[in-house]
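Record 1 of the preview.
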Amino acid sequence: MDGKTVVITGASSGIGLETARALAQQGATIVLVVRSQERGQAAIAEIQRTTPGAKASLVLADLYSLAEVRRAGAELRALPRIDVLVNNAGLIHGHRELTVDGFEKTFALNHLAAFLLTYELRAKLAASAPARVVTVSSAGHRMSQLAWDTVATRPRWPGQTLVYGASKLCNIWFAREAARRFAGKGVTSNALHPGPVASAFGQSGSRLFQVGMKLAKPFLLSPEEGARTSVYLASSPEVEGVSGSYFVKGKAAAPSRRARDDDEAKRLWELSETLCGVRWS
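->
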């Protein structure tokens, strides 16, 4: 990864931080897109502690806000090149909350932020080709409730697991349709399941979910283990040119039947364009 620049969202902790650390160890220049400067600087210090001389910097953005995503995109476009974009940021929310734009927070962070940031960086990625987009989904996509007329706002809350699962289903649809849109431009797009990871991911879930995560922690993967497939898709020559796939444990796998429905992937894309006020030809 010498000479390559990697942008990673949600990289101040968990698998995002471990993805950044591993790619920095391979020689990549890392740009962490985070909400908190304090936590971001602590993440850089941690990376440089284990990888002396690691090249890392911050772009601050609250990815719940579309305006903030656009601003981050403009800042990132000033980079000389972007070889890899890792759409890693994601959370589960224990109850319905809306963003400043009026969207349900899980959908806004887990899907819309990834969609809009990739849109903002599409030309820079193509200019840096061969380039890669890696989107962190989850096996949780198999447990979802998604109705097209309510997915963005969730006026009736079906529960955190079903809402989170729907956002992860959107991640796979996004990765598949992005692969089609990037075809012929030297940019690949793939999604992945990192595995069940012991991280801060569940802190925004319900109290019961948080307790469950604590009890399950001894049986979960470490963040370093959970980052391995993200690192593989970002850096391995074995997947050069592979696009539109879903990976588990470093291998291509079949997501759910609904996740493989490209008509629904296209419908999500068109809805996302409308919600974000953009058109991606």
